[in-house]
Amino acid sequence: MAKDTKELLKKVRKIEIKTRGLSNHLFSGEYHSAFKGRGMAFSEVREYQLGDEIRTIDWNVTARFNHPYVKVFDEERELTVMLLMDVSGSENFGTLNQQKQDLATELCAVLAFSAIQNNDKVGVIFFSDKIEKFIPPKKGRTHILMIIRELIDFKPENKGTNVAEALRYFTRVIKKKCTAFILSDFISPGFDDELKIANKKHDIIALRLYDKHEEEFPNLGLIPMQDEETGELLWVNTADDAVRNAFKAEALRRNGTLQETFRKSGVDFTSVGTHESYVKPLMTLFKKREGRR
């Protein structure tokens, strides 16, 4: 086996152990409550047992027998989960603990393992400013490991970002309603219309990946900065307060506009930084969805 392949498999294994553990212990139940239960079919009534949810109590039957009874539901159908993954140049940016690309890989793996534990199919669309690769939805661990291998090793042809393009393609190829996670920094031309259309048909969740230093310059004096997507090199004076403040103001404006876009389209949204653990933002997002049920 070639050294590269060995290294790659080692990486896959490492990510599998970490993310599988997380989805087993943390996310599986949360994921289930947050994304399942849309197609529930009523099957029977049984006596209340300790630990049953209060909201499943059937009050009519309870009143009739003077004893608590709960409704039992069967899951009508499995879900398809699509991961729309931004593989553009800016995803290579990362100054603190990891690059955005590493963060995206782990997030995708956690979501994929949570999905297959719930017997869902998982598919992936890699996009830059074009569709780079489509992996059709399937079930099973082998399929997930193939996805993780691709996530680690994928080399995009283009460097730009076009979220609208990804959403258009996704709406075209996935006919049945599914749950889709978009992982990107969303530094892209406008995509409001495409998002509205996609979210009418599907259930879309946006995970914005960012690095602190894309939003706030540290004072490092005069530094060269290269745009990962265009390759252009610029010298920036980070010692200048005005430069730092303008940079921060622009980042805040961009994030405000983005949040507004998601809010108007009715898309659930959270931000995950390369400097933090993604467990908390994901759990908060899942809990918020659960609360709306």
Instruction: Determine the mean pLDDT.
Output: 84
Shape: globular
CATH topology of the largest domain: Rossmann fold
Q: Which structural class should the secondary elements be placed in?
A: alpha/beta
What's the main sheet like?
A: 6 strands, mixed
CATH class of the largest domain equals Alpha Beta
Helix content: 40-55%
CATH H-level superfamily of the largest domain: von Willebrand factor, type A domain
Q: Which oligomerization state do the chains in this entry correspond to?
A: single chain
Q: How far apart lie the N and C ends?
A: 50 Å
Helix/strand order = HEHEEHEEHHEHEHEEHEH
Total strands: the figure is 10
Placed side by side, the strands forming the largest sheet appear as 5-4-3-6-7-10
Summarize the structure in words.
- This protein is of the alpha/beta class.
- It has two domains: 245 residues, Rossmann fold, CATH 3.40.50.410; 36 residues, no CATH class.
- Helices cover 46% and strands 23% of the residues.
- The strands form three sheets. The protein has a six-stranded mixed beta sheet, with helices on both faces.
- A hairpin with a 6-residue loop joins strand 8 and strand 9.
- Helix 5 packs parallel to helix 6.
- The radius of gyration is 22 Å and the shape is globular.
- It starts with a helix and ends with a helix.
- The model has no long low-confidence stretch (mean pLDDT 84).
What's the short story on this structure?
By secondary structure, the chain is α/β, with parallel strands linked by helices. It has helices at about 5-35, 60-65, 100-115, 140-155, 165-175, 190-200, 210-215, 240-265, 280-290, and strands at about 40-45, 70-75, 80-85, 120-125, 130-140, 180-185, 205-210, 220-225, 235, 270-275.
